[in-house]
Write a structure and sequence with these properties.
Elements: H1 2-16, E1 24-30, E2 35-41, E3 49-55, E4 58-60, E5 63-65, E6 71-73, E7 79-85, E8 90-96, E9 103-110, E10 113-114, E11 120-125, E12 132-133, E13 137-139, E14 144-154, E15 158-166, E16 175-183, E17 191-200, E18 207-217, E19 228-241, E20 249-251, E21 259-268, E22 273-279, E23 287-288, E24 294-301, E25 306-313, E26 323-330, E27 339-345, E28 355-357, E29 361-363, E30 368-378, E31 382-390, E32 399-407, E33 415-424, E34 431-441, E35 452-465, E36 473-475, E37 483-492, E38 497-503, E39 511-512, E40 518-525, E41 530-537, E42 547-554, E43 563-569, H2 575-612, H3 645-651
Parallel strand pairs: 1-11, 20-27, 36-43
Antiparallel strand pairs: 2-8, 3-4, 3-9, 5-6, 7-8, 9-10, 9-11, 12-14, 13-14, 14-17, 15-18, 16-17, 18-19, 19-21, 21-25, 22-23, 22-26, 24-25, 26-27, 28-30, 29-30, 30-33, 31-34, 32-33, 34-35, 35-37, 37-41, 38-39, 38-42, 40-41, 42-43
Length: 665
């Protein structure tokens, strides 16, 4: 029995405290705007009826009205109470001119007593400031594009929404959004919110995608105008050959067993899946190769929307049989057709009497070109000869040849001979050089017909700008102190010597910079005869002065004129220095004004005293006898004491009367 009574008491108490019924909402208000609260009563007589507002756990009376229609607003609150009489009820409307987030609830009080079941929630939100979205970045092996949209101020919390404005609507199923909050670094006591978008790239059709991202205060029935929006754009394109006609090349078997191919491709993002397969005739099934048989790297051609897939093949070759390769690459984006690059490698010649020469390659930091010519079968040792067929004859003084022998791997009992040529590049004039290499058995009086020959061609060209008109650019000072330039050049071999110098006017001598002030890399643009010199400058900048740079590069080959790339960086503006001048000017101006005021007081004040023949200049009086040196501040109900200006003027010196601003009622 006691338990039932206790339960009944709890239920009654909960009802009285209005915890059981769902609390109503007075309204949804933007912080700083007006809120209008209401209390209604039947036609009864009352001395006061008011909606009170809960702030920090206490209900405060902002204003009230009596049934007789007398209304007043409490001092210290920016609110106004009004009484309206209707047929069946009397209503008191309280207009709070500036609602804030500390106001939680409204409750009606009649003659100082709670009117039950009148509680309602005051829902306050603060509209977010500017929403900033970063450009999408590819992550997770280029399978996902992410973008963060951030704003620095919102209340209470924010919710994110994403709308597709442009692009295939199927991408909507691949967009995942999340929201996070943290203390704002820009606005103390406020929340910052970040919306993160993750867009699955794999399986998405290529095209341009444009999204509208919005952040709304997490409040029910909040108006649409409270949402702050920004846009992000994402371009997706499937991996494809930059030049489809580049397909189907036939390559000779590489003498060193390593075939290197540079394949120029387009696509965004870069490829993340590749495969290589081989066939040995046109009709047989392709056999996939493993990662031990090939490798690849990818590099971006700056500001071109293209990239270089460098494929290195070491497997799949066969004696006497051509190899037909299919190289596939994908970034997961769905395009018109899959990417395939097809090429073949000619059969390895079984004729051991043939002299095979590999293509020249550059060594020792591109200061020399070397190549090997190999004969798999010779009965005795051989000797090498080199004959220049085309090119400037001065190069002959820079050719060094050597010969080596070993047991033939293909023909037991015979010797294999290798002629190695080393050509010094530095100092040679640019041009095409064609050599005939011969191997002759090292036997006296052997006939000329016993010499086996082959030809090699070496192309040398000096480092030069691909477009001479690209010279003379003016760049803004980089905010991070690091200027990156991509310079498109020609030349073979690639540059091996660079220097960077700076001047600070057109006539001064150039000052060389050290390796701590700049760095560079070089990458080849496949099948184009061009390369990209990426120069990263971190030194030579000066505050208030433009920097005039000269970048020199060389591969040692002599061309028509030395390579020079000239550019300049605008002067750095020193905002601190500008502020210092401004502050100093303000300080000097203020000091000057101070001395002027003091001078006026010293000169004029005694004269005023003398003119009025006052014995004590410090004892001016008001008309009421009060000391003028102590200005009188009247309360709001005694402002009349300041109205008689004529009395004040007659009673004291012609100094201004200080009247404080009357407080608002």
């Amino acid at each position: 029995m006691e338990a039932h009574v206790y339960l009944l008491c709890c239920v009654m108490l909960a009802w009285m405290l209005q915890e059981c019924p769902a609390q109503k909402v007075c309204g949804v208000y933007e912080e700083g705007n007006e809120a209008r609260l209401t209390c209604r009563q039947e036609h009864h007589t009352f001395s006061s009826l008011s909606p009170r507002i809960e702030i920090n756990g206490q209900f405060h009376d902002f204003g009230s009205c009596s049934s007789a229609g007398v209304c007043h607003s409490e001092e210290g609150y920016d609110a106004e109470a009004e009484l309206y009489t209707f047929v069946n009820e009397i209503s008191v409307f309280l207009s709070v001119l500036s609602v804030n987030r500390d106001m939680k609830r409204s409750r009606c009080y009649k003659d100082g007593q709670i009117v039950f079941n009148t509680d309602c929630s005051i829902v306050v939100y603060a509209k977010a400031n500017e929403l900033r979205c970063e450009s999408p970045q590819f992550v997770d092996g280029n399978t996902v594009a992410t973008s963060n949209c951030t704003l620095d101020k919102i209340y209470p919390k924010g919710i994110c929404n994403v709308t597709l404005l442009e692009g295939n609507p199927d991408i909507g199923d691949r967009v995942i959004k999340s929201v996070s909050h943290e203390a704002s670094a820009s606005f103390q006591g406020e929340l910052a919110v970040t919306c993160q978008l993750r867009i699955e790239v794999t399986g998405t059709k290529e095209g341009n995608y444009r999204f509208k991202v919005g952040v709304t205060p997490d409040v029910q029935d909040v108006p649409v105008t409270s949402t702050v929006t920004s846009e992000i754009s994402l371009r997706l394109s499937a991996t494809a050959l930059f030049n489809p006609n580049e397909n189907g090349h036939v390559y000779d078997y590489p003498a060193n067993g390593q075939l290197k191919l540079d394949i120029e491709v387009t696509g965004n993002p870069e490829p993340n899946r590749v495969s290589l397969s081989v066939r040995y005739n046109e009709t047989s099934a392709a056999a996939p190769l493993t990662s031990q048989d090939y490798s690849y790297t990818y590099s971006v051609v700056a500001s071109s929307g293209r990239g270089i897939l460098r494929l290195v093949v070491t497997g799949g070759f066969k004696i006497g049989t051509s190899s037909f390769y299919t190289f596939q690459a994908s970034n997961g984006v769905v395009g018109p057709e899959p990417f395939e690059y097809r090429f073949s490698v000619a059969a390895i010649n079984e004729d051991a009497s043939e002299l095979r020469c590999e293509d020249p390659h550059f060594v020792d930091e591109n200061t020399a070109a070397t190549f090997n010519c190999t004969l798999e079968k010779i009965s005795t040792k051989g000797k090498c000869s080199v004959l220049l067929l085309e090119g400037n004859p001065n190069i002959e003084n820079r050719v060094i040849k050597s010969v080596s022998h070993e047991d033939s791997a293909s023909f037991p009992g015979d010797l294999a001979v290798t002629c190695q040529l080393r050509i010094e590049v530095t100092g040679n004039e640019q041009g095409n050089y064609r050599f005939q290499v011969g191997v002759t058995p090292d036997v006296q009086d052997i006939p000329v017909t016993s010499t086996v020959t082959s030809e090699i061609t070496l192309t040398l060209s000096a480092t030069a700008l691909f477009n001479p008109n690209e010279n003379g650019h003016v760049y803004d000072y980089p905010a991070n102190g690091q200027l990156k330039l991509d310079i498109e050049v020609t030349g073979n071999p690639e540059p091996n010597r660079v220097s960077l110098s700076v001047r600070y006017d057109e006539t001064s001598a150039a000052v060389p910079l050290s390796s701590q002030d700049y760095s560079y890399t070089y990458s080849v643009v496949a099948s184009s005869g061009r390369g990209i010199l990426r120069l990263v400058v971190t030194g030579g900048f000066k505050i208030g002065i433009s920097s005039l740079y000269t970048f020199q590069a060389s591969n040692g080959v002599v061309g028509p004129e030395p390579f020079e790339y000239r550019f300049s960086v605008d002067a750095i503006e020193d905002e601190d220095e500008q502020f210092s001048f401004f502050a100093a000017g303000c300080a000097i101006g203020g000091l000057g004004l101070f001395f002027i005021v003091v001078s006026v007081i010293i000169v004029c004040f005694p004269r005023v005293c003398k003119a009025r023949k006052q014995t004590n200049c410090n004892s001016y009086k008001h008309a009421d006898g009060s000391d003028y040196s102590n200005p009188v501040y009247a309360e709001p109900n005694s402002l009349s004491s300041f109205h008689n200006h004529s009395e004040l003027v007659n009673a004291g010196p012609p100094l201004p009367l200080r009247v404080p601003k009357t407080p608002d009622p």
